[in-house]
User: What shape does this take?
Amino acid sequence: MQEKSKVILIPCDSYDGEQVYQGMKKGLELLGGLDSMIAPEEKILLKPNLLKKAEVEKAVITHPAVVAAMGRLLREEGFSNIILADSCGTGSTRKVIRGTGMDEALEKLGIPAVDFSEGIQVEYPEGVQAKDFIIPKELLESDCVISLCKMKTHALERITGAVKNSYGFIYGLHKAKGHTRYPSADSFARMLVDLNRYVHPRLYIMDGIVAMEGNGPGSGDPIHMGVMLMSHDPVALDSVFCSLIHLKPQMVPTNYHGEKMELGVWQKEKIELLTPEGEISLEEAVKTYGNSSFHVDRRPVRRGIWERMAKALNLFQKKPYIDQQKCIGCGVCVNSCPVPGKAVNFKNGKGTPPVYDYKKCIRCFCCQEMCPKKAIKVK
Assistant: This one.
């Protein structure tokens, strides 16, 4: 009989540093302890979600208390060679964390935050969707990766969690180029699965104490969920997240393809869910910790001939729209667009709201992710 994937659910109702630390410590014990995952001499890279510069309360980035708790536990276990880094959507690691409290916590722990310095092309011939990646040098020099992801919605993939967090392992501007190479939700998801299989993070921890619903991953609304999730299986972890927000796990492309490509499992029969009080059924977890009103896209995906016709006629497709009342004409969306020739531009002059050319738009929603004023929504 195949062993089930273990997911740990830790109730945690605030970002009080000691509460987060004690909860994370207990969760790691349930997974077998850090010494069962990492050798003392290994170089460790902590990878939070650092999408862009934002106030901590907006739930855009992994909370500093979660990062600090992980760093403290590693230090207490004697691990000495640790760095923190991410390939951010805009800005650099050190710029994004500055003033958030994460920078101060890391300094106290003696853990440097580093900016990725160089991208190196690596081949991955066994990849299903992606046969190569441009990976930061610092990642290739690390022995062990710990992914500290954030519980958020996502316009393209419905949710961003454990599997999606690994996109921060693509170096710099190559992240934007990836959207043009893998423009559909399914192709992008398969690439993400390949990337996780290549990097193979040892541990995934999700900050779901305050999550983001709605217009995520950068312009949504904070919502209290009161949990941390952790697992060695990113698909199982993301699937528990989906269940808690009453979203069918198989509707998320990274879950669906993640199981097919043997990264992990999404079916509840294959997942063992544990809390500090013992094993719990997924139904009981949803009843106790779930939120049926969580704002996330639960609409079914059209398949077959109707999908092909809709795409050919440009009907019933998700599209980014600019709220002209909120837009300040900063041009972040234009700069973020990865399409050659730009699918959004200052047709009416700089300082005015940009205009979309939907014939060029590949629906990657990079513009919506990066907008600093929540002026772009997907409809």
